[in-house]
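Summary for the funding panel

The consortium committed to producing paired sequence-structure records for every protein in the target list. Below we show the first two records in order, beginning with the earlier of the two.
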Amino acid sequence: MKKTSYFLSFEISYKRSIQETNKTELRKYLQQTQQQLISSISHLATNLIISLRYIYDPTQSPKLKTYLLINRPHNTRIAEDSEQILSLLTKGKLSQFFTLTPQPNLTPFQNLDWVQTIGEILKHEEFIPPQNYYLPHLFEANQTNDMSAVCDVIHRLDSKLILEITLQTYHNPTQKSLWVNAINQMLAQLDKVNANTSGIKDNILSVTSALYQKYQQSYPNSDLFQYSIKALAENRADAFPVLDTLIHEAIKETPHGKRCRIIQVSKNQPGFSESLEATKNVDISSAIEWEGWHKNNSEISIANAIQPQKKGLGKFGGDSGSLPDKPSFYPENQPPMIGGVNSEQNQNLPQLYNAVSDGSGLVKLSATPPASRMVDLKPLHRLATVQEISGFFRIAVPQEISIENMTEKSLPVANSEDLFNYYKSLLEQDSETYRDCYIVGINDEGNPVISSWAETPHRLVAGLTGAGKTNFLNWVIFQFLYANPTGKIYIADFAGVDFNFLAKHFLDNVEIITTVEECQKLVEKIHTDEYQRRIELLKQAEVHNIQELREEGVEIQRTLWIIDEAADIALAPSKLKETIQTRLIEYARKGRKCGLHVIYCTQRPSTAIITPQVLESCEEKVVFRVSLAASEAIIESSQAAKISKESRGRAVLMLVGGDENNYVNTPYIRVPVGKKVLVEDTLWRYLATKS
């Protein structure tokens, strides 16, 4: 990555407020806040680059994540500007709605070997013959864009994609003087053309004049951004529908009807490598551009390119589209023209040209002007005011869920980072309301579902392969260790592969066995070292439970015993099966008091594996997709069998004594995988920090 003064990266997550009442007003205020953010950024620093990125990976959960990246060239005041930017993002109005979590790992933004095509949105620009008018259209921002339609399209993709909206505060005085003078000359020349139309209305001339009047009125004295709006796709066909939807959502139709163009390039095509490097470096590239600029007329001076129709005898000297050798208002003996432009004058534009507007938007020349070229107007298609670009630079606002019209495709997605960051205080509390709790997931209204170890000591977790059972266990283990940093977890992992990372990174907390033979010894060890020891401590302190024991000054944390996969227990010798069932029944009566908890798991639930004794011992049941027979046997309904294969992580939560079985959407939690996925890339980094 190229050298920069600093590079900041944040993952953005929405702060869902249960207290929200007026959703319409809330969303309107949030949209206004985002526009104000762009305006504030434009005043912060010269050449500041800020990039909003939606990164989609269908193999991950959640599939779509949002990031904000900031890059600052090294030739500016680093410390002061950095503090202002951080304060604006983390303490300003935006922080009311979004949590910005710093991202130390830059790999997701730089490992882009998978990108096969890049599509880019540019202002629609065109040369209109025969007068050769050049029109770089303006954006007309749609301030109600909440990115929901764009995110819907992205979620329907089957391959990776990055949607990137990157802005750089514009500060280029030399270039600016060129296009300011070119705008003025274009208006003067259009005025001259209009004077020769003999009163005949020319709609194209009117549109062109009105457009340049807007540029003249707003661009010279406004805060401007250079922009880059692009999609980097693994599948070439995916970039266009995403960008096309963004165009429809982010801007309004213009009177001329041509709003934007989408240009796509694939690997090995001109502009691809430069654009890809710009994304890696959090920079803006203009390598992808409209092919019209490769035409010869782009280098011609505006006065030569745009001529009024000849009148009188002059019209017999050639057709109306021909170009004269020299514009009528150029002085004699001027330096030779190179490529249609006086290069000597063009180098001294700010000194030689003085344009005065008469209030009509058309410019009168107060001195001999230098010959601006058509290409001097080219920067306009890469520039935008705060108002123009505000429709594109939008952080997605989650759509509210309609319970009456709920379908599985519209279910809320539980994000482990969001849930943990927003509700982790509950894991640290020890009140009567939230005592030794953990977050199961979110319900179909998007609200958190909380469970308590103190109230419900043992759990049954069931689900077919791929339904989300193992991921849920990792989610529970993570929260358990966060709330109990020195607590012990014993795992009977008969598959032998699902929890290896725990043994590697959290050796002091986790003990894993992988065979039925080892399980016999583990059962006895847990009974002696954990259960009986804790019961004795309760007796000695003359207290009733682990909470009261802590209040007596005894440092003790909860212990978790996970049995996965229970089907192997069913095939074990009868003595072992009887021992485990006996222990479960015993722990069911006293586990709550002494802080010993069991999670009994199976992929293939049946009456042979889950006996009535086990079912009675587990007062909480989390049932992912299972067969109809298993669903009816465990929760006495067909709910779990109705969960679709696509709804990974969705389960039925049944509490003994509860009125009904409710669906819960459990979050995906990424785990360390060798050298490919490091601890610091995952939520588990919080455990390393805590320990």
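The next record, for a separate protein in the list, is shown here:
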Amino acid sequence: MPRVYGGPAGWISVAIPATIFIYMLQFMAPVSAGQPVLLGLDWVPSMDIRLSVAIDGLSLTFALLISGIGALVTLYSTKYLGNHPEYPRFVLFLMMFMAGMLGLVLADNLIALFVFWEITTISSYLLIGFSSDEAKSRRSALQALLVTGTGGLALLAGMIMLGNVAGSFELSVILQQGDAIRAHPLYVPIVILFVAGAFTKSAQFPFHFWLPNAMAAPTPVSAYLHSATMVKGGVYLMARMNPALGETDLWFWTLIIAGGFTTVFASILALRQTDIKMVLAYTTLMALGALTLFIGAGSAAAIKAAMTFLVVHSLYKAALFLMIGIVDHETGTRDANILRGLGRKMPLTFLGGALAAISMAGIPPFVGFIGKEFLYKAGLDLDVASLWVTGTIFAASVLMFAAAGISVLRPFTGALADTPQAPHEGPWAMWIGPLILGAFSLGFGLFPDTIEAWLVAPGTWAVYGDYAYVVDLYLFKEVNAAFMLSLVTFATGAAVYLVHRPLRDWLGRVFAANPIKFDPGWDRVLDGLKALAAWQTGILQSGVLQRYIFTVFATLAIAIGATIWTKDALNFRIDWAAAVNGLAFMHFAVLIFITAGAIMAAITNNRMTAIASLGVVGVGVALIFIMFSAPDVAITQLLVETLSIVLVAVVMLKLPQLGRRHEQQARPFHLALSVVVGGLVTLVLIGVVQGDIDRRLTDYFEITSLPEAFGANIVNVILVDFRAIDTFGEIAVVVIAALASYGLLRSARYGADRDKGAGAGEDRT
């Protein structure tokens, strides 16, 4: 039966973000007054990890956008996907995504922030690949996961380094130590790692290719992901860390070059698309590049412009994605070459989309005009790279003007065209979102003081780090260079829109001729990794047990040898007289006994003899334990050796003789490796014995075993009390070994029974 607004899953999905939005409104008063709110509790105290929350202008702005737009998107999805058989699963993924984003922007602890960062990575993978029966969805989801996940690993390394440098993982503490962090020798690698995490998350060039492919997700996901959530996670990180990592040439030039190039490059790519959803996807890249550009610029005016544009973009981009989702839902196509004249059939959708498109184009009196004006003003006021910043924003604004026309003006005006489905207005749950967001774009433009006091000023203070800076937003004050640039933008943008179809064809030919293609290049990278993995697996996972053991011990030898060499651990002198002092004849006898067993195991060609020889070695080791007062360990050793010899011998009886030719080829290498490993272990033991032994743990066990653990046998107390989990692990190992032995015996008996059955069959035949 059809679900009513998605059923319980739909109602819950709307109620949760709406409740969060209403709850977050209570913090606007203190935050607007410059008083951040800090909350939290200890999560993993031993690792200095707190589940702490910092609500300042930046985090509150993001939280309101995430929850507010989230409520409209989930309401939209109740009709867009409400009757999908997997809709409850979609809601689960979307709620997990929302929780991850809210935790990311509100976390005051770096480790907690990373946990939520990865939650958004995983949940976005699930959402992008929601249509899992489609190869395109699976590929796009995996691409987003691998790109952003790789950046997340770099970010984790940077966070650990930053926490160690600052002496705390609390952001509220770290952000107060900007001068010390910038002067630290690890500042450069910290910036590189943080930028890697932010650029992959926010799809900055050259990591831009995964974001347009994420359009494989359902439209509600695209609207949410592009406007207020995941892709702005990297922008949030750069903005949050600006007081600690900014104000250096490395930060400045990295962000403005990458951000500026992404801004223009993405705008050009948007112009050559015919799928309106892809047009919007590339304009999101443009916006992310612009935000990165102005965060990198770092001046107070630039930060104010970035915070204004952050809100502006979230409002119009969510509305436009929801709008094109309605068009696709009701007409069956998103092709700009087909869609025309929809305004007559879908007036409310047209109105919501038009309001958003006008703001996107930067036309007054919408808030988009204010955002564009302050971007121009901030760029013109820069002392360094003013021409680069202003020029890139001008080029992007011109192309955004044309993109707004492609997205809304062309589909909704003119004569009605034939579409796969007869167009009609969508349900109210779908068009109410674009109308509300479009109305906010107009309202904030007419009354800029509201957005200034609620969002832009507190956000600017948090990012710039100066609560005394006066933020003043206005629609129009005077005719200046920024205003004249806006007029030129309108004229140039209109001209580009008029010729956008032949221009799009020309751009298509240019990009087709370009040999560098990032998305196909990604496939080649994956193919190369698969080939490397196959080659490596063929060597390491050959199925030959001897090679496995050789590889393990060779790695051990290299690791120990390299450590001894780099740490200069051979700087001790061995006192051989002291080493042999106190040793009796029985000690040397056991040593000869063990050596003889080892030599016999190495030279024999008979498996049974080799197993018995190894048993001799094991018994000799047990004798050493007995001589040095460890009878319990000796008993364990004897039991294990006896069990191993018996069980392995049973299996070995079913195997053929060792080949002499094989032994002649392999055994010299095995002998050399065993000598090297044995020598290195001996050196390590001698070095340990020659040094001072730290007896703190030993003394602790001696003092506390009887009064606290009520046991006089210290070894037993250690095993069953102080190291109970370790003992449990050892028991698990014994159980696994027993099961493996049982499996070997069972397989041997099964093979014998099968052979008998085959013989009987032959006789009967």
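Regarding this second record: Residues 760-765 have pLDDT under 50 and may be disordered. The CA atoms of residues 264 and 396 lie 5 Å apart.
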